[in-house]
Design goal:
Layout: H1 7-20, E1 25-29, H2 36-42, E2 51-55, E3 58-62, H3 65-71, E4 75-78, H4 94-103, E5 107-112, H5 121-128, H6 138-142, E6 146-149, H7 154-162, H8 169-177, H9 182-200, E7 206-207, E8 220-223
Parallel strand pairs: 1-4, 4-5, 5-8, 6-7, 6-8
Antiparallel strand pairs: 2-3
Helix pairs in contact: 1-2
Length: 224
């Protein structure tokens, strides 16, 4: 439903379980946002180095799609699904990179926030008053083999934010004034729960976030 609920943490936790089960899992891209608990989970997991690109005088790091395809792990972790790639990349969007990875026979565990789903963009804008520019087509969610909705109450999420577990101290008040208003969190949470139920309940692919185990060929989409 919103950043900071724990989707990256959950992906990394599951990656450790897969690795312990003998499955060849690697991190293709993870964004920890400096969160200590999330960074700690990166340790012990094999990471495919990011591709460094110089763009407009700055060095930018992007997911290395070609290296992922060449190394060809059984499962790859890809964070920030709605990300827009730097100009000159093979694909404009990271979700398109994920489609290439899947087409190569590699399973993907990825993550997205509810506000990044194209079909919900107008509703999200009505809730928070902000147009989210980075979006994924609805078909991407529909193609997922497994969906896990990472859920927290508004009180729990706000407590995490104020404790500095989501953003650095200088960004907390800005967050509280925007997406992290209590009424926004409640509405986004309701929207996320309805969306997951609408799209996957009939197919039996829904998991509430309690327990989840991936077989060797699974495309897990974590919606937050």
């Amino acid at each position: 439903m919103i950043a900071g609920v724990g989707k990256s943490y959950r992906m990394l936790s599951d990656a450790h379980q897969l690795l312990e089960s003998g499955i060849d899992v690697k991190i293709g891209y993870i964004e920890t946002h400096g969160r200590v608990e999330t960074e700690a989970l990166v340790e012990g997991l094999p990471v495919i180095p990011r591709r460094k690109i110089f763009y407009k005088g700055k060095e930018i790091e992007e997911m290395d799609l070609q290296s992922i395809l060449s190394i060809h792990p059984e499962v790859v972790i890809v964070d920030e699904l709605a990300h827009t790639n730097v100009e000159g990349s093979k694909n404009e969007k990271r979700w398109q990179d994920v489609m290439d990875i899947l087409d190569a026979g590699i399973s993907v565990i990825t993550a997205v926030n509810i506000q990044h789903i194209e079909g919900l963009n107008e509703m999200v804008q009505d809730v928070v008053g902000i147009e989210v520019k980075e979006r994924i087509p609805d078909i991407v969610l529909e193609q997922a083999d497994e969906v896990v909705n990472i859920d927290l109450t508004a009180d729990e999420l706000l407590a995490r934010l104020k404790a500095g577990k989501i953003y650095k101290p200088d960004k907390i008040q800005t967050a509280l004034n925007n997406f992290f208003k209590a009424e926004h969190i409640l509405q986004l949470r309701e929207l996320a729960l309805k969306e997951v139920a609408l799209r996957v309940e009939k197919s039996g692919k829904y998991h509430s976030g309690e327990s989840w185990c991936a077989p060797r060929k699974v495309y897990g989409l974590y919606q937050q």
